[in-house]
Amino acid sequence: MEPPGPDLRRRPTPGDVQLTARKGRAGNRSLRVLPLSGVSSEELRRGAGVGAAALALSSSGEVVLLAVLLGAAAGELITGAVAVLATAAAALRWGTTSLDAIAGAQTVLGPAAAVGPMAAAASTWVAAAALILVKARGLNAVLFGLTAGLIAVGPAGALDHVAVRVVAAVIGAGLALAAQRWAPAAARPVALGLATAAVVLAVAA
Amino acid sequence: MKSLLRRRPSIDESPAAPAFDPVELQPAPEPAPEPKPKTKAIRAPKSKRTPKSKPARVAAIRPAPAAPVAWAWVGAASVVTAGWVAATLGGWDLPFDATARGTAAASAASALVGASFRPSTRWTTVIAVATLVVLPLGLAQADGGSAPLLVATLGIAAAAELVTGLRKADERRWNRLAPVLAPAAGVACLIGGIVVDGGDGLSRPLPSGGTLAALLGVAAAALLLLAATLGPDRARPLAVPGLLIGLVAAPGLPDLAMAGAGAAAAVVWAYRAPTRPALSLAALALAAATVPAAGQAAHLLAAAAVLGLAFAHPAILLLGVPGAAGLASVLAGNEIDGPIVVVVVGAAATALVLSKAIETRTWPTPDRLGPQLLPALALAVWLALCPGTWGWTGAGGLGTYDRGALVAAAALLLALVGSRARSLAQATTSRRASR
Q1: Across the interface, do B328 and A37 touch by the CB < 8 Å criterion?
Q2: What count of other Cβ atoms lies within 10 Å of the Cβ of residue B268?
Q3: Is the ipTM of this complex over 0.90?
Q4: Is the pTM of this model over 0.90?
Q5: Does B122 contact chain A (CB < 8 Å)?
């Protein structure tokens, strides 16, 4: 008796029989509405990071939305908390939650880090430092540094303002990358404390 | 040998007692035969066991069908309830003598009916639909004159909910709750009518000395929200009248106490049941209702709570972002006041607790959603992206949020498409390399 050749079909398993009877493949009991099965949480985090960068660079949207996207991109509790507190400090410092209004105020009055009252300017510096020192993982450090730069120096409008804005963003991103590489591990709780202090200073101002 | 194939030594078994005797190479004494499992295993197809007709075999394997009538009924109750609530909030001219009291009570009653009955035959369906439409109309008319008729109709609705709730043998948790919740829901209808007594709209202030009525209204709202959260699917519409009564009654309480209670309830519930954050959103909505400037935020949080009941995932918290933006706007743009600070801190703590739950546990990916969830999903996306267009929630002040949400969503989608394109290109390259 000759051995079975490569073209011989194998005997159907019980699972095959079930699937044949159901005329489909495994798991088709409910209607497939959202093809989300292929989207990983990592991709969603990356997308949230891109969305946050778009908000920060275009100065559109609300501070809360930016904070939520930053926290979602980071995927860590401490980092997210620092993002929420730092952006809240910026909102309290200017008295508005609109990123557009914050950028407009900096266009008229000057960069947030250089326009006083003293406590308000200090709040801006401390919030930016917290965003840099929190040591977000991977490319999120660039995102957090970008936000720090735009919170501190982020006017919008004319070309020279845009140039200042770009320079501040680049400096912030560079500092965040440096902190991610060389800052000690204790920098993260320090960043959380700084972010809290920024909120307190903004309220006091 | 068969015994060896059947039974493998587990890790806990001592190596000194192997199944084979290593010295004499004799098989060990055969252990006692294991009892046959009671559940039937799937057997390989054999000609004698194969059913004769293929449809019969398919019917045997196919899972039990869902109950479309129950879902349709819940949807109908939700639509009618939402219509009543929208009429109340929008101050529409209704074609009959309906005031806020009648509308609030009618929406509660229609939701009660939707939660109670599950029509199974043609006649019960006709009766249920007629009740769903006629009962609110009767209540609204009764509100104009006959208070005893109003009380009697509401009592009948509560009693029907009690009886039908007790007869559901397959839902034990609902059975335990029904004796408490059904009378409470009936009382809630009455209190909803009392709290808004004589008003033409929800903006009318409560009568002086209405603290007790407001307290009872908030308590009734809490009971209705608990029933909507913990009960079966058909009880979900109870959240609408619960939030309606709660939003009306909450401003009648001392603002700091109500804000603190709502914020604490939101945090505690988020810690205890992170899969059902809708109740946390509802508690935050009631807490925000005590702040006069945060009416829009309270309504947005209430809408998020109602929509969040359709899904069981902590990520539903994202629906509360528009409401949180409204709260933050009030906090940043006005004098810092105690209640708004308490509400904002409570919202942040709730988000922290739920984020911790998302970070530390593994949640099932919602890769498949049934068609019955499509309307809720569409409304949820609409709420998350364009809350400024929800005009009934209050004065529009979220245009900036809308623009930002659309920019962020577009960037996120572009990032996802780019990621997919890159992975596709990598797969194509590796396939060519393997050839």
Answers
A1: no
A2: 14
A3: no
A4: no
A5: no
